[in-house]
Amino acid sequence: MKGYVKIICALAVLLMIVTGVFFFLAKTLPARASEISKESIVLLNRVARIAEENKNDLSVFDGEDYGIDFAIIDEANHLLYFRSDDVRYGQGLSIEKAMQRRFPYLYLSEDKKVWGAVILLDDAAKACETLAWWLASIFCVVCLILLAGMARYGFYVRKNIVVPFTNMKEFAAKVAQGKLDDPLAMDEGNLFGAFTESFDVMREELAASKERELQLQKKEREFVASLSHDLKTPVTGIKVTAELMQMKTALKLKETADGRATYAKEELELLSADAEGIRGKAEQITNLINDLFTSTLDDLGEFKVNCQDESSEILGDIVRNYDDRGLARIGDIPAVLIRADKKSMSQVIGNVISNSYKYANTRIEVTFRLSERYLEMQLSDHGPGVSPEEIDLITNKFYRGKDWVGTDKDGHGLGLYISKTLMNKMDGDLIAESDGKGLAVTLVIPLS
């Protein structure tokens, strides 16, 4: 833009100079022509008087410089005397031609009889001719300068407008083809510098987005592979336990049919334990499938919650339902109404307790506190906790702590991510904190 302003200023200055020159010439040249005309009249009268006095000997003009060119002709337009360095004036000179060329002339007479004429060959016409040549020369110079300015402006437009837009067109084509590694070249002083830079920023963002997408796809593939492996373990356990129960049951039924044996209490307890094992494995599979299903719906933007007014007592019921190992210690629950989706809240609390079982396996303190329009429910364990640099990352999708990657602790980094997503959809929040002596997860639940 600065270059464009400079060009406009230069052209404006040039036009001002040309205008000034025209005014100067228009003022001075006519005045000069007027002065020449007055001198010419005086010289014309002087030459005419001398010519009339020396009609028979015009050589008297040879010895004096009159400061102007002139010629003397007779009535038949014969050249009697010629004084000029330009011989063209003397060729076919006549009164008619003098009148056409606007040469001043004066008739010569003797005894009131015209015998010739004196014609001056240098006067205002010459000044006008000079002015015309000046004007023509200035016009040509101005035209050349304007052409040069137009050429410079055309070069400027091409460099700063046409070329950048052509580059952006080619850049857009590369982006459309997925070629995001080549930056958009920018020249210093580009008229569309900020606009062009925003296009390159867009390319960088698209490249980063594409890289994130590839990483996410990779993690999803790894997740599916890991989930398939994790699902095989409880399914195999269920299958083996079910086959064992089937064998035991068939044997007992046969013995009972033969009257050789009946069911004892210990045997029933064993069968009950096997059934409980099957239920636990099935619950493990259910949790994995729920996490996968919730994550998929969230990616598709189709996951929804149905919040209703519920008694705060349901929170204690949910904890007791998921506390299979009896590690939770539930504090006093304020008697209030909360606004939540009971099914989603169950999934959140279940994921938090499951994580505590997996990584801490210690006592879980469950406390409650009213804070303005929310009920804060905190679940704290006494395990190794999470490092400060990772505490804000553990709710990210597919993220697992560095200390647990590659260990025998199964997981996919979805539990806390899904829990936080569900809490946000219920207009609440999930906040994780760790002081190095355990992990505290606070569920912020809106009141009714």
Q: Tally of extended strands?
A: 11
Rg, Å, rounded: 55 Å
**What is the ordering of alpha helices and beta strands?**
HEEHEEHHHEHEEHEEHEE
General shape? rod-shaped
Largest sheet: 5 strands, mixed
Proportion in β-strands: 5-15%
Mean pLDDT: 76
Low-confidence stretches: none
Structural class: alpha+beta
Distance between the termini: 60 Å
Which percent bin holds the helix content?
55-70%
Major beta sheet, strand line-up? 6-8-9-11-10
Per DSSP, the total helix count is: 8
Describe it for me?
This protein is an alpha+beta fold and 448 residues long. The protein is built from eight helices and eleven strands. It has a five-stranded mixed beta sheet with strand order 6-8-9-11-10. β8 and β9 form a beta hairpin. α4 runs antiparallel to α5 and α7 runs antiparallel to α8. The protein is rod-shaped, with a radius of gyration of 55 Å. It starts with a helix and ends with a strand. The mean pLDDT is 76.
